[in-house]
């Protein structure tokens, strides 16, 4: 690999934010450019100013092919009107930029594992979280995380590196350079242009494109009543489901939180499709033991004319108003056609970071489950050291062999990206590869601290105990004839925990 002087970072969420600092502190690069398609830093912690879109083309979401690239103008630079990407009859393809934020959302992971080694989440707690978990609640409101990430970007002049509302529409290697085709979104026009770099760091995250399972009749059900089928990332609070009959699909943490939260406002019971599905690796399925949640088997089909949802065990629910799909996400890289996405994982990575066919392409955050913010930091420092020429990597053959062995051990799917339970081994391997800062230049990575994972697990236990307590209170209230207003509320739906892991 030749000298790297110009680095592009794609994404200014938590992974991108810590990558900016890691690169800048190496003091080895002439150009650091960050491209963020949202209007501000923060990634999936940035709230939306407009209501979420209705789900369309459910079949392509089920096939994991919905996130298609936009056509690129033949001549660049170029300015195109908004209507150029489509028309009234053929709207432009969705870009899935909206987040899963709503007013009372909070984290479900302790603030300590969501902090970096030098930067910590502030000690700010909401009254709701204190009421649910006590005065030392380790959870934080989404705005605290958003402001934390934005603070990482808006320091040391780093904000000057970032181009907002800018999408990387294509990244391709041309000779020894990376050619990035960029689109900056305006109110009426989009500006397109090209920039060249020596290396690219992908920090886009993978909680953007909803995965929608194929269910017979689901698309017709949605078309007959637009907005009746939503993904959990489009959940904007329980009030939108007042007096509605709701079926929630998904046995992971979002499905649990949404189901319990809807008890407050929706028609009872809430029908949760969880039977026959694996519970979340960390959170279990205790939330679904709520007396007003009816556990159901897999959906076989939906009759849109009668709004009846039929289940695998032969039961059915008529007159359904809404179906909420808490069914995870699809990894997509529409701007990077040279990289294979296989079974919802990025193929070709060494230690989940370096694209071993070309070490000038690196990924931050291509992992699933637990301690993600800290993993972002370790990966970012490794990436920065590699590009600065200060980290010694094994030969490409050994890197490819590491991937092949992991596929054999874990599987050629999302399980490949699961660091749990080998956190110490992974953190220390990455730290050793990155090496120590030279002459005080660069971020220093501390040794792995087992207390990080213990604190992480303690936070999960708090959540589990909350569900047990609320379920017991609900059963007692039912015996005593107390209605919905006797319920505790609200229960927060959260987005930090990985939803792909079942």
UniProtKB/TrEMBL annotation:
InterPro entries: FAD/NAD-bd_sf, Flavin_mOase, Flavin_mOase-like, FMO-like, HpyO/CreE_NAD-binding
Keywords: FAD, Flavoprotein, NADP, Oxidoreductase
All copies of domain FAD-dependent urate hydroxylase HpyO/Asp monooxygenase CreE-like FAD/NAD(P)-binding, residue ranges: 8-60
GO molecular function: flavin adenine dinucleotide binding; N,N-dimethylaniline monooxygenase activity; NADP binding
Oxidoreductase listed as a keyword: yes
Signal sequence annotation: none
UniProt entry tagged with the keyword Methyltransferase: no
Similarity annotation: Belongs to the FMO family.
The protein's name: FAD-dependent urate hydroxylase HpyO/Asp monooxygenase CreE-like FAD/NAD(P)-binding domain-containing protein
Originating organism: Colletotrichum costaricense
């Amino acid at each position: 690999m030749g000298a790297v002087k110009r680095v592009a970072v794609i994404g200014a969420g938590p992974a991108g934010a810590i990558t900016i600092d890691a690169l800048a502190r190496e003091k080895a690069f002439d150009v650091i450019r960050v491209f963020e398609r949202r209007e501000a830093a923060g990634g999936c912690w940035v709230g939306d100013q407009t209501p979420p879109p209705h789900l369309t083309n459910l079949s392509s979401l089920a096939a994991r092919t919905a996130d298609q690239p936009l056509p690129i103008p033949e001549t660049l630079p170029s300015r195109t009107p908004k209507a150029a990407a489509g028309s009234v009859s053929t709207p432009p393809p969705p870009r899935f930029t909206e987040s899963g934020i709503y007013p009372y959302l909070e984290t479900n992971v302790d603030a300590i594992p969501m902090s970096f080694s030098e930067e910590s989440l502030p000690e700010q707690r909401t009254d709701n979280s204190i009421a649910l978990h006590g005065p030392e609640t380790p959870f934080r409101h989404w705005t605290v995380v958003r402001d934390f990430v934005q603070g990482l970007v808006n320091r040391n002049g780093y904000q000057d590196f970032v181009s907002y509302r800018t999408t990387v529409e294509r990244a391709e290697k041309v000779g020894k350079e990376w050619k990035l085709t960029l689109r900056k979104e305006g109110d009426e026009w989009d500006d397109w242009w090209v920039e060249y770099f020596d290396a690219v760091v992908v920090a886009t995250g993978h909680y953007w494109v909803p995965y929608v399972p194929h269910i017979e009749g689901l698309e017709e059900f949605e078309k007959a009543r637009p907005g009746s089928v939503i993904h959990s990332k489009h959940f904007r609070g329980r009030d939108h489901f007042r007096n509605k009959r709701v079926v929630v699909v998904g046995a992971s943490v979002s499905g649990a939180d949404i189901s319990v939260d809807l008890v407050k406002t929706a028609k009872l019971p809430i029908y949760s499709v969880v039977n026959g599905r694996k519970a979340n690796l960390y959170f279990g399925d205790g939330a679904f033991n709520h007396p007003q949640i009816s556990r159901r088997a897999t959906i076989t089909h939906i009759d849109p004319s009668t709004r009846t949802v039929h289940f695998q065990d032969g039961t059915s629910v008529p007159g359904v108003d809404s179906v909420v799909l808490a069914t995870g996400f699809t990894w997509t890289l529409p701007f990077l056609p040279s990289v294979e996405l296989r079974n919802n994982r990025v193929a070709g990575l060494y230690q989940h970071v370096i694209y071993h066919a070309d070490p000038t392409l690196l990924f931050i955050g291509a992992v699933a489950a637990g301690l993600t913010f800290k993993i972002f930091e370790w990966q970012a420092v490794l990436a920065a050291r590699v590009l600065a020429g200060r980290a010694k990597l094994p030969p490409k053959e050994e890197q490819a062999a590491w991937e092949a062995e992991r596929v054999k051990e874990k599987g050629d799917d999302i399980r490949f990206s699961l660091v749990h339970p080998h956190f110490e081994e992974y953190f220390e391997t990455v730290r050793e590869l990155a090496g120590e800062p030279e002459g005080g230049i660069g971020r220093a990575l501390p040794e792995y601290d087992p207390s990080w994972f213990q604190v992480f697990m303690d936070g999960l236990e708090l959540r589990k105990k909350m569900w047990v307590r609320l379920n017991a209170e609900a059963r007692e209230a039912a015996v005593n004839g107390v209605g919905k207003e006797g319920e505790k509320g609200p229960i927060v739906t959260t987005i930090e925990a990985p939803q792909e892991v079942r």
